[in-house]
Structures are given as C-alpha cells and as structure tokens.
Amino acid sequence: MITLDDVSKRFPNGTFALRDVDLAIEAADFVFLVGSSGAGKSTLIRLLIREELPSSGRVVVDGEDVARLARGRVPKLRRKIGVVFQDFKLLPTKTVAENVAFALIVTGHSGPNVREETDRVLSLVGLSQRRDHFPDQLSGGEQQRTALARALVNRPRILIADEPTGNLDPVTSWEIIKLLTRVNELGTTMVMATHNAEIVNALRRRVVHLDHGRIVRDEREGQYAA
Ligand SMILES: Nc1ncnc2c1ncn2[C@@H]1O[C@H](COP(=O)(O)OP(=O)(O)O)[C@@H](O)[C@H]1O
Ligand SMILES: [Mg+2]
C-alpha cells in the first residue's frame, strides 16, 4: 500500500529530515512511527500526503508515485488517505457535523448522501449526540473523535495519525486508540506517529523507529524502546 524507496528529504536550510529511508507497508498493516522529536516522523507523514516532495528516492502510495502525480490527481490521492493531527485542526466556525460534511463537499459530494455519510461516521465515533456542537463546546477527546470522523468520511484506504493522543489525557487517549484499532481491523492501513510508550507497548504492532532521519529499527509486534 505504501513504499518508500531510498527516500531522502533535505530542506532548503540544509537539514536532512530523512536519509535513505526504505519502507514497505502492506495493506491493512498497523505501523507505529517512533523516535525523538526531530527524528523525521512528521516529515515522513507529509511525504505520504504530498505536503512535501522527496529530495531523492520514490514515495509510492497505492501504486502511484506521489511526486509524479499530475496536479489534478492530488485530490484523488488525498481522498485515499485520512489524516488526524495532535491539534485536531477543526474549523471553529463549523459544527461537528459541518466539519465532517465539509470533507465530503470539498471532494465533490452533494445531496442527501452527505447527511447519510456524515451520520454514519459520527455514529462510528460515538458523536451523534454532539453533531450540532461547535469545537469549543467539546472536550479534547470529542474534538479528536470529530477529526477522526472527518478523516474517515471518505472511506480512506489509509489512515495516518501524527501524535493523535499528544493533547489528550490517558483515558481519552485509549478511547481514540480503540477507535483506531477498530478502523484498522476493518481493513484500513494505519500509520501512527507517537510518543506514547504505554500504547505502543500494549498494542504490540509493527514499530518503525526513526533516529536523525534514518530507520534504526523495524519490528513486528515491537515495543516503544529497543
Ligand atoms: N520545513 C522545514 N524546514 C526546515 N527544517 C525542517 C522543516 N520541517 C522539519 N524540519 C526539520 O527536520 C527534522 C525532522 O522534523 P520532523 O519530521 O518534524 O520530526 P518529528 O516529527 O519526528 O519530530 C527536524 O530537524 C526539523 O527541525
Ligand atoms: Mg512530528
């Protein structure tokens, strides 16, 4: 589903965020990206969603070389990938339901289908009762569940989460993780950057450890630390 082939990323200021990264992620896999701040986790994620281009090497997502994608095909790539971030990135002037529906509308959907699909994912994340609330009326966990519903509404094949529990307390973090594992069990490929050792050690999934832009460990049923 995802292949990085000898990928390096050098920023214009000279920083190498990734160096010679080779990585293959099968469909329906669940991968934790771990490593200290500055190790390159977010950069790797930004390459997958084409927010950055590799300086060298190839990034292939679902059979398509991301860097060679014609402009017009980028939205199609983005629909294949749902993304959630540490800081939720919700639109503050839109309700929960509107935030989710917006992800459908910008990808060209309209009509009664928008309401149906929005309700489907709000129910999935347990937020049907909050559909008309605004983000600032929600707890952190509810905001992240809204972001997750928005990420899932286009039925992406891949779900990427960059430190999704970074702003949440432990109990709320586990609620989010349970939802993510459920989504993964339904067949969605999951890539999650995290500093949460407890969660990584409890789930025992694949762990890819980055250090100064290089993969230094890649283990099945891995732990947070070597
Ligand atoms: N746009 C940028 N310009 C210059 N350097 C950057 C940029 N984005 C990230 N970096 C640098 O790249 C390295 C990796 O950053 P990042 O991928 O954000 O790491 P992580 O998510 O693991 O904390 C860091 O040294 C960071 O300062
Ligand atoms: Mg980061």
Short characterization:
With 226 residues, the chain is of the alpha/beta class. 33% of the residues lie in helices and 26% in strands. It has helices at residues 41-48, 74-80, 96-105, 112-124, 140-152, 170-185, 197-203; strands spanning 2-10, 16-25, 30-34, 56-61, 64-65, 81-85, 158-162, 189-193, 206-211, 214-219.
Short key terms for the protein model shown above:
about 230 residues; alpha/beta; Rossmann fold; six-stranded mixed beta sheet; 7 helices; binds adenosine-5'-diphosphate; binds magnesium ion
Description of the structure:
The protein has 226 residues and is α/β, with parallel strands linked by helices. The chain has a domain at 2-90 and 156-219: 3-Layer(aba) Sandwich (Rossmann fold), CATH 3.40.50.300. The chain has 7 helices and 10 strands. The protein has helices spanning 41-48, 74-80, 96-105, 112-124, 140-152, 170-185, 197-203, and strands spanning 2-10, 16-25, 30-34, 56-61, 64-65, 81-85, 158-162, 189-193, 206-211, 214-219. A 6-stranded mixed beta sheet has the order 6-7-8-3-9-10, sandwiched between helices. Strands 2-1-4-5 form a 4-stranded antiparallel beta sheet, with helices on one face. Strand 4 (56-61) and strand 5 (64-65) form a beta hairpin. It starts with a strand and ends in a 7-residue tail after the last strand. Adenosine-5'-diphosphate is lined by residues 11, 13, 15, 17, 35, 37-43.
